[in-house]
Every structure is written in C-alpha cells, then in structure tokens.
Amino acid sequence: MPEMRTVAENSSVTEFILAGLTSQPELQIPLFFLFLGFYVVTVVGNLGLITLIGLNSHLHTPMYFFLYNLSFIDFCYSTVITPKMLMSFVSKKNIISYAGCMTQLFFFLFFVISESFILSAMAYDRYAAICNPLVYMATMSSQICLLLLFGVYVMGFVGAMAHTACMVRLTFCANNLVDHYMCDILPLLELSCTSTYVNELVVFIVVGIDIGVPTVTIFISYALILSSILHIHSTEGRSKAFSTCSSHIIAVSLFFGSGAFMYLKPSSLLPMNQGKVSSLFYTIVVPMLNPLIYSLRNKDVKSALKKTLSKVLFS
C-alpha cells in the first residue's frame, strides 16, 4: 500500500473520527444493544445457512450454490461495518486510521458490489429453472456456476478498486470528522480540500453500472419468468413457481431500492442524516433479513434444518 501511505503523508489527516449514527447521548446505549442484536442475528443466520447448505447434499444445487455465496457476502460485509459502528455508541471518539478507513471502504464496496451481481446471477438461475426446466442442469452446470461466480467477484473487485484508487488521490486537510458510522464514499468526499469532480463522475458511472446492469438482468429474467408462469395451466404449478421467486424479489427490492436512493440522488437533495438511515438498510438490515427471507419461505431449507437438528439431538 505505498500509494496509500504517500497520500496520508501528503495530507494533514492521518486518522478520521466517525461521528456515528446519532449524537444524542440517551440513545447511545439502547442503539448499541439494538444493533448488537442485529449483528448476532446476521452472524448466526448467515453462518447457519452456510453450514446447512454445506451439510445437506440435496441442497448442493445451483440455486443453493448462489445462496451459499450470498450468505458468505452478507456475513463478510456486515462484519466489515457493524463492529466499528458499535464502537461509536460506547466510545467518546470512534477513531479510525487513514489506512484503516481506506481498507474498510475497499472491502465494504467489494462485498456490496458483489452482492448486487450475485442477486442478478440468482435471477438468471430462477429464469433457467422455470423457463427451461428440461435443460436446467445443462444450462446451470458447475462450470457455468463457477464462471458466473468468478464474474461476480471480479465486478466487485474492479468497482471497489475504482472508488478506492480515486479516494486515495484526494488530499484531506484539517477537518477529519466523517459524518457517518462508516467510511463511505460520499461522507469522505465532503472532507476533501481538493476537487472531487473525478470521484463524483466515477460514483455515477460505476454505481450506475453496478446497480443498472444487475437491475436490467433481474427485470428481464423476471419478465420472462412471469410470461412463463402465465402459460402454466395448473394453479398448483403457478403457486409453486411464484413461491420459488418471491423470496428473491423481496431481497432484491430491499437491497437495490435503498442503494439507489443513497447513491443515485444528488447529495444536495439527500441530507446526510437521511443518507445514514438509507445506508442502514443495505449495510445492516438486508444482511440480517436475507437468511430469514430465504429460510422461512423455503421448504427445502426448513426440511434440511429439521433433519440436521434431529441428527444433532439424537447423536
């Protein structure tokens, strides 16, 4: 990280102070326990789903392969954000070093961009399963699944590198108070004492791609799925097809809705307090809800959970 050290030396800022979610003292402890509870549910839910899919061979299908990776991504990017956020509720100054801040920014962006593309890969998987069931296993072979997953993480890495590389080129002067609970792009741009035009351009281009491409993929997939479902004559068949997709639609709506609201609006139209609330959805709430959405609405997962628990209890 030689470039990061050089920028830190050229700037008068060597560390940042994270302002946190709120400055009201009476809310600090209740919010600490609330978000600690959220984090525990996120960790248990996602690691539980990863373990469940790993232990049950009948869940070793393309759909659960992507769900396994979604849970891994949710666990990782929640862990990048939440522990540091919890510190702001119990410490007077939540200090993070310059290198630590850029590292948090990189890994947050890597996992959040990867999530947007894995959701689109899951939509394509549902399209293949419902619209072309006879050739599903050939369409979603293990090689194709691995290729899609490789694409997901490459897009995550490229997007995170683009934003982080632009950020480390900026100079930060006297003001080092980040008006957020994490090192995010927009709050950091506000602190720069050099031009942020290139960074803002990169935000609109990269975020536009990272939200636009998956959203278009998902919309096309579900338009074709809906068309296919409407041609199913049996009510039971339609109901099964809808239930297969409903969990994914809920997760996609929560994630992309809050992300687009935060990044694709001009900062003048979105006060930072509203931005923090919007960020909570895709950084804290979505990683917690995803395992619940996919497990509580999924018969295969519930069946696997019962079998695994019965094995553990009887052994």
UniProtKB/TrEMBL annotation:
Residues 45-294 form the G-protein coupled receptors family 1 profile domain. InterPro entries: GPCR_Rhodpsn (IPR000276), GPCR_Rhodpsn_7TM (IPR017452), Olfact_rcpt (IPR000725). Pfam families: 7tm_4 (PF13853). The chain crosses the membrane at residues 31-53, 65-83, 95-113, 134-162, 201-229, 241-264, 279-296. The keyword Transmembrane applies. SUPFAM superfamilies: Family A G protein-coupled receptor-like. It is a multi-pass membrane protein. It is found in: Cell membrane; Membrane. Keywords: Cell membrane, G-protein coupled receptor, Membrane, Olfaction, Receptor, Sensory transduction, Transducer, Transmembrane, Transmembrane helix. The keyword Transit peptide does not apply. Putative odorant or sperm cell receptor. Belongs to the G-protein coupled receptor 1 family. This is Olfactory receptor. The lineage of its organism: Eukaryota, Metazoa, Chordata, Craniata, Vertebrata.
